[in-house]
Amino acid sequence: MLRLEGLTKTYRTGDQALKAIDLSVPPGQVMALIGPSGAGKSTLIRCINRLVEPTAGKVWLGDTELTHLSARALRRARREMGMIFQEYALVERLTVMENVLSGRLGYVGFWRSFTRRFPQTDVDEAFRLLDRVGLLAMADKRADELSGGQRQRVGICRALIQNPKLLLVDEPTASLDPKTSRQIMRLICELCSERGLAAIINIHDVALAQMFVSRVVGLRLGEIAFDGAPTGLTPEVLTSIYGEEDWEATIQKVEDDEEPAEAAE
């Protein structure tokens, strides 16, 4: 599905955000990307869809090599990569439905998108997605009337209506309270399972990652410091990723609080 070969990003300042990253994510796998601030997590996600241009290396999505595509070909390829943002990236003056349908802009012509005249099949799918995430009654509300958790659910719907093969999720719970954070992580994992979607979730909350995903990759200073099951995140491994801390307390919290991913709140 997704394959990174020697992915490197060096900024003009000389700072190297990513150092020859080799990584593969198979179809249907949800992977958490952890690490301290400045480790390169957001840069990695944005290099995949070329919101940030890699300095070197290759990114493969299926049989398509993304790093040398023309602008037009890249626009087509981005249809297969849904992006969910930390700050939601909604147009606040538009309704929930209009924000969800904006995920179809890569498929409809300019005038249809300009006048917001989407095919009925797209509208029907938007209603189905909103129903799935519990926001059907909010379809006509403006985005600026929603809570943080509701906005993130709209962002999830907008990404999924693209019918992507891969989800790139950048800090989906950073602005949310603990209960809503669990609900959002659970929802993302459930939807990926239902649709056979691969996903990379950049997340700061180690305990939350351990609760919901089957694979964790830890970055430190632009390099992979850990790649394995959440159970492999021992105090020694977490220290190698983040530095010295009382990691036994974090691990104990996961053991005490862990809930099955499919459980309903």
UniProtKB/TrEMBL annotation:
Q: What does the entry list under GO cellular component? A: membrane
- The organism's place on the tree of life at top rank: Bacteria
User: For the ABC transporter domain, which residue ranges apply?
Assistant: 2-246
Entry keywords, A to Z:
ATP-binding, Cell membrane, Membrane, Nucleotide-binding, Translocase, Transport
Which Gene Ontology MF annotations are present? ABC-type phosphonate transporter activity; ATP binding; ATP hydrolysis activity
The UniProt entry, under Pfam families, shows:
ABC_tran
Q: Record's PANTHER family?
A: AMINO ACID IMPORT ATP-BINDING PROTEIN, PHOSPHONATES IMPORT ATP-BINDING PROTEIN PHNC
What is the designated name of this protein?
A: Phosphonate transport system ATP-binding protein
The record lists the organism as Rhodovulum euryhalinum
